[in-house]
Amino acid sequence: MRVATDIGGTFTDIVYIEADGTVRFNKSHTTPPNFEQGVVHVIEKCPIDPQAIQDLTHGTTVVINALTERKGAKTGLITTKGFRDILEIGRGNRPDLFNFNFQKPESFVPRYLRLEVEERMDYQGNELVPLKEDDVKKCLEVFQKEGVEAIAVVYLHSYVNAVHEIRTEELIAELWPEVEVTASYSVSKEWREYERSTTTVLNSYVKPTAKKYIDRLYGMLEKMEIRCPKYIMQSNGGTTTFEKAKELPINMVESGPVAGVFGAAMLGKMLGEDKIIAFDIGGTTAKCSLVDGGEVKTTTEYKIEKTGRFPGYPLRIPVVDIVEIGNGGGSIAWIDNTNSLRVGPQSAGALPGPVAYQKGGSEPTTTDANLVVGRLSKKNFDMEVDLDQVRAVIQEKVGTPYGLDAEEAAMGIIRVANSNMLNALKLVSVRKGYDPREFALVAFGGGGPMHAASLARELNIKKVIIPLAASAFSAWGMLMTDLRSDDIQTYNARLIDPDYEAVKAKWRKLEEKAYRDNAEKGVARENIYFVHYLDMRYIGQDHTVKVRVPAEDMNPENLGSFIEAFHKEHELNYSFRLDDSGVEIVNLHLASFGRVEKVPIKTLEAKPYTLDEAVLEIRPVIFEGTGKIDTVIYAREKLSPGMQVAGPAIIEEVSASTVIEPGMTAKIDDFGDIMIETGV
């Protein structure tokens, strides 16, 4: 048996695959701030024999929560003399050019804790000024006096030669072994001093919190006699061991969401669909990502807290390329000072939750709106729902200000939420040069199945796939992953008669390091495989494009294929190509994978029910454009492969409801997935 758990803003999910390939899942309420308790609770809800667990994979929000809530460790920075203000100087590119009140991001490390030491390397890694070790000792004395809990070490050009950072780590270990330390060379070997500095600082900032969390969770799992190999989901779409995750916890920043994207890609392969838009609506946010040719795309241009008006904090780590917005089931509907209806980004979260939860929530949410229009049934909640109270809150907060009744106000909330989600879907498709009509939409999370059909129709997407265990699909995705690590090394070379042997030697060096790292995780050499990328650009450009290499080794005969692969990728990203311009490599990117044994997914057996016997009830539901219609409600657990239903219809399960719009049809496939044909 293989088990995966995923912590969300509202629920903690579990998915497990039994030895015969049967997939089962469950949910429990998330338990902030002691998130590990939610993991224990959801495991205890399942009939799982701890001795039968082959491995356990975990996705967590502990890192992103520590960053967004500013609940990390008191962090100090040691850097090259003259560069203590790099975190404040940042970049000059402002996202909102005409905002005269713009302020740069406030550093996670106050200036009095940013200290300098005398040392210097040049851009080729040659030592210009030796490391003055007494300066390091003086920094530690200041940090100890100020109660610093974690230290970031960032020296100029250490991505080329890290000897000074390594020596500084050794000194700290000798003089102050209790403090947590992150040196930039261990996090990122890319140039861009500001981005490398923020990544290192943020890793240090969350390291004590993440380490304590992982240790507590590990201890609880061991107490439950779950003593199998344990893995943590990373932002790059792969997993790592608990021990490795404690060293570089910043790699868990999007731990849960990216698992769903990877799961969507794997499901696409199972179903013969290699063009997928993954769409995940949880309790707090909606996330989407595009998978083309079966490949999950990663980026090192990720920024936390980035908005249209705020530049955010850059992280120079591989993260699955996702767009995330503050629109989920718990997103609050409110009226701004221009009298416009807004939904999100504020969320009712797990506590107090939507009004329907009866836990003190007093603001209308998307979940409440779907309940009022009939898309959700109060019978399907695991608590008593006072529908009259839900209606009254929507009427008071939204309906009365606009002169609408509660049902009209609820539809207004859904329209605004759908509009926000539609914009996110366009960001990963239309605005990146992809035609959404060529893709299938895989919708999951608690709210994805409810909104997907309507959004697909807007984008002219022909097929919507609602996977089995949709509400816990991110955890399902974790069971499809392999161990993964990424090594990105800046290596600048123009592709005009390049030094082929030098490039090959760089790849071999990265590969040998990957073999050693995987050996520490217990992965045999024969179970390791690589994917090679180059970050490339036109000579004179600032930005790069990530290109999967057309061949492992570059040589005079295939050089043209490398250049053409870049031209195509650049045109896809920026809508133009410059065939007469020179091309250069900026970074080598090696993704190494350690295969994890997987259990084949079992096809769904026929249920002992007819389609009529699967009907729960017929109730009025409001649909956009058609108004209130008597709609057949089906129980998903009673539907068998091959069964087909016509819209309007709703397929209910314990933790999700799939809405099939009028004019659409849905069919259950061999794995229990709902395949919706939108008819566009």
Automatic annotation (TrEMBL):
What Gene Ontology terms describe what this protein does at the molecular function level?
5-oxoprolinase (ATP-hydrolyzing) activity
Q: GO CC terms on record?
A: cytosol
**Where is each Hydantoinase A/oxoprolinase domain found?**
196-486
The chain positions of domain Hydantoinase/oxoprolinase N-terminal read 2-174
Q: Origin, by domain of life?
A: Bacteria
Tell me the GO BP annotations in alphabetical order.
Answer: glutathione metabolic process
Q: Give start and end of each Acetophenone carboxylase-like C-terminal domain.
A: 501-671
- InterPro entries given in the database record: ACX-like_C, ATPase_NBD, Hydant_A_N, Hydantoinase_A, Oxoprolinase-like
Q: What is this protein called?
A: Hydantoinase/oxoprolinase family protein
The upper taxonomy is: Bacteria, Bacillati, Bacillota, Clostridia, Eubacteriales
